[in-house]
């Protein structure tokens, strides 16, 4: 009689943050395999990150090495606060967040919320931005140690670690929350307002710091630094200096503030992360479909493109218009254009409103000039077109349909420019009119519009080439701000090339505004429209030929690798 043999069950292994770190490293290795250009870009980004980190390290360590405790507090509070603010805002505006480990891929695994959040946070530490931030902030440890000995250095190191974790958790909590909101078109206006408020925080801070520097009132700067040091932006970075100055109790309280902030951010991230994983963003109650007049072909064309021909070009314009309205990634970029497009010209032309010179002269909007306004408009126009620098990356593998259909490159690029301009051009007009009203200079409206549309058209032409030659894939994530590892530097590099190229080509409008005087007030707008429109058409024509020869390579570059 056979005796049944019982095989003991192997106990389940506990998932730790180290498993997520190993998984990220393995995914990184797989993404770099056979992709020499990705490895080169990653190494180049690492070198740039280390260079900026070294500069930041010496800037933060200089007060301690010089024995200046007063300036050490200012630099720690303002430098640490800017680091935290940069981690919160830059992913929303420019660089995105590295989500090599897409949280949605863990939705079906039996992982607790705490395990998932701590694991993803640990994996986020394995990145070039996190390494650069840690090296930069280590300068505060040197300063604290030089001024207060090993005890202050130890507390400073603890504060730097907590501050880095606050930066990482805050960036991911904010982008995850906005990703959840932007999936619902009903709340896109609320998301735009919140982004505007966050970006506007830089304005008062800049005015306050510049006012204190201009008046050389170091007592005021010292007072502001002490206030910032008690906020979550500066508390972890200044704790070590408090120990060096004999305020041990204050250091303990600041560390508690930082830890409480970290806990709140992690809790917020866990809630928004779980919603994003299960796709629980409500799209509202079901609607009864209404009858639509017209043929089946006419129904495919939104009202905004009712003018388009019912041919291949018109179909592409209609499709792109729907994508820009419905895709969360694209809406996020439109929000960035709207926010920064208003913020930058106001700060450039009205940044001195609250300043007074030694002679009693008031610095304000009157200090602006047609050349300065044109320069700010060139930046806005170049920024507006920047979104198209990776326009094929939004499509991903779906771009294969265009390849199979044999869409000519010139038609493809012209249709994408036209669809994007339907949303962006009205925003640019509103920005120019609003700035003219704020400055009280309606006669400058032509100069603003000329520089704005010249830079925008030149940016469309340059980004047509950039999008064909430098395309990269975007992760299949519900987070519109997510990027694959290493893509952050690629995006930053393409941003630099596009912005500099667009600005250089449009610089003649600044020179003309400075030299031609009142004549340019009448010529700027028609010349700018012709200049920008001609540049955009020429760019689509030339880049279209390149696209025709690179369609297979482009499809391979924008297809996400699993």
Structure write-up:
The structure is a single chain. By secondary structure, the chain is mainly α. It contains 20 helices and four strands. The chain has helices at residues 17-32, 36-66, 69-95, 113-124, 128-182, 188-200, 202-214, 218-229, 235-244, 248-278, 296-299, 312-326, 328-350, 370-386, 391-395, 400-405, 409-439, 445-469, 487-515, 518-558; strands at 97-98, 355-356, 362-363, 482-483. The protein has a two-stranded parallel sheet. The chain has a two-stranded antiparallel ribbon with strand order 2-3. The radius of gyration is 26 Å and the shape is globular. The two termini are 52 Å apart. 45% of the residues are buried.
Q: What would you say about this model in short?
A:
With 562 residues, this protein is mostly helical.
How much helical structure, as a percent, in the residues? over 70%
- Indicate the proportion of strand residues: under 5%
Structural class: mainly alpha
Order of helices and strands: HHHEHHHHHHHHHHEEHHHHHEHH
3D shape: globular
Poorly predicted runs are: 7-11, 280-289, 291-296, 352-366
What separation lies between the terminal Cα atoms?
A: 52 Å
Q: Quickly count the helices.
A: 20
> How is the main sheet built?
2 strands, parallel
Strand order of the largest sheet: 1-4
Radius of gyration: 26 Å
Number of strands: 4
Average pLDDT for all residues: 76
Structural key phrases:
562 residues; mainly alpha; two-stranded parallel ribbon; two-stranded antiparallel sheet; 74% helix
